[in-house]
Amino acid sequence: MQRLRARLARSNTAFGRSLLALLGGGKLDEEAWEDVEDTLIASDLGVEAATQLVDKLKQRVSAEGTTDEETMRGWLREDLIELIDPSMDRRISSRRLEDRPAVLLVVGVNGTGKTTTVGKLARVMVAEERKVLLGAADTFRAAAADQLQTWGARVGVDTIRSDKEGADPAAVAFDAVKAGQESDADVVIIDTAGRLHNKANLMDELGKIKRVIEKRSPIDEVLLVLDATTGQNGLKQAEVFAQVVNVTGIVLTKLDGTAKGGIVVGVQRQLGVPVKLVGLGEGPDDLAPFDPATFVDALLD
Ligand code: GDP
To answer: What range does the record give for the signal peptide (predicted)?
Structure first.
């Protein structure tokens, strides 16, 4: 978690600084409050959440009769944490059950960091001495399976794939789950394709993957990978995927490259599911569990 703070702090200082400069700038007139609201909106928090935060802060300022910077920072911190909802369960359902491996499906638009996330997640689980198997159900490009297999080799796990470009992704997913069951794996992680330009195709393909896997095993977790740097576009993607599969958790990648961490709030509100993991870089160790308090502290640093 220390690393999360360090990484986020680096990209978010502009946000935190400008917000606190506004709050600490003396006279808090209407214009100043509007600036605070604009800064919050600019961080992709969403208009509704930003307005709500500012209204609450204003009320507290007038009720307590203080504009002390540290006090206001404390209030803002509290309210932001509340907005991210610390009561949500952010654990990944990846425990092997008595008779079968856990099955994780990883979905999202191409380029958001799906394959990288699968690799990093496998590494975390391998470090916990669990037996992991990967499934390369992005069969559209041979390079995608190669990339996953490379990650697998890097972290020491096998990858089930098809050598035929354009093979049926549902069949590969099925084979991966079957192989996982037959080899007593603890967890099977399946990487999928996400070509959003054709929504009907995406729905057909993902829907079929889900149905076919479920012939063999329940799906324990569907992780939606979103690129934090895409802002509101990420929210639109989330909506489309949520229509096709029952998303159970969000992975927000590339948080190391943006000051717009507010998307955490927007996407959780929209889907009603928690951000469970965050991507903080391209390396194998750059994945962290999402913790609201650490995140807000980094945001306000
Ligand atoms: P996919 O098409 O969704 O499977 O995306 P990839 O896993 O191939 O990732 C796309 C690009 O984003 C690659 O260059 C990754 O190294 C990079 N990437 C993935 N996650 C992160 C992250 O958390 N931070 C940064 N900075 N880059 C990332």
So the answer is: none
Asked if residue 284 has its Cβ within 6 Å of ligand 1, the reply is: no
Name, in order, each residue with C-beta under 8 angstroms of 300's C-beta and a sequence gap of 6 or more.
16, 19, 20, 73, 76, 77, 80
Closest residue by Cα to residue 175 from 222, 217, 135: 135
Q: Is the minimum distance from the CB of 119 to ligand 1 under 6 angstroms?
A: no
What is the 49 CA–ligand 1 centroid distance (Å)?
Answer: 28
Please give the pLDDT value at position 14. Answer: 57
Residue-wise pLDDT tens digits, 133-148 = 999 999 888 789 999 9
> 7 CB under 6 A from ligand 1?
no
Task: Name beta bridge partners: 226.
Answer: 252
Pocket test for ligand 1, best of 116, 146, 195 (most atoms within 8 A of CB): 116
**285-301 residue pLDDT tens:** 999 999 999 888 877 77
Phi, psi of 166, rounded to the nearest 5 degrees: 85, 10
pTM score, whole prediction: 0.91
Above 90 in pLDDT, residue 38?
A: no
Q: Is 255 annotated for ligand binding?
A: yes
Say which residue, 260 or 205, is predicted with more confidence. 205
pLDDT for 65: 85
Q: Tell me if 67 is assigned to a ligand binding site.
A: no
